[in-house]
Design a protein that fits this description.
The chain is α+β, with helices and mostly antiparallel strands and 147 residues long. It is built from 5 helices and 7 strands.
Length: 147
């Protein structure tokens, strides 16, 4: 495998160290989930970081098919807690089951001004990339006239 970027290490050891010693801010970004098809078409964004009060649907694992509202985003343990997805301990206390954010899709976003700004920013960068490296017909005509 050829190394693609000089800025980022391709070492497994360094990647794992950076992942597990990531700060809370970095974990926030890493703990992102895909949006469902309707939201993806609406916002032209594939994934966003999960937050409390988002509604999600579990798509992998034991709890596949279950839906609920995010109760907590537990960054220290890399999991999210979803309402109604609990288990009973031996002493009959109920505890939330931690679910990896990559195993859920977001079905309803909790929008506030920061979330809207994030979606607009991600959408804007995608629009900018569409025209990147493409010449318009006017520019092509101008280049032909130069010769």
């Amino acid at each position: 495998m050829v190394k693609l970027s000089d800025v980022v290490s391709s070492s497994r050891r360094k990647s794992r160290k950076n992942h597990f010693s990531a700060t809370s801010v970095q974990r926030h970004k890493i703990m992102s989930s895909h949006l469902n098809k309707e939201l993806r078409e609406k916002y032209q964004v594939r994934s966003v970081p999960v937050r409390k009060d988002d509604e999600v649907s579990v798509v992998r694992g034991t709890y596949k098919g279950r839906e609920g509202k995010v109760v907590a985003v537990y960054r220290k343990k890399w999991v999210i807690h979803i309402e109604r997805i609990t288990r009973e301990k031996v002493n009959s206390a109920t505890v939330n089951v931690g679910i990896d954010p990559s195993k859920v899709i977001i079905t309803k976003l909790k929008l506030d001004k920061d979330r809207k700004a994030l979606l607009e920013r991600k959408q804007g960068s995608k629009d900018a990339d569409k025209g990147k490296g493409k010449f318009t017909e006017k520019e092509v005509q101008a280049m032909q006239d130069v010769d």
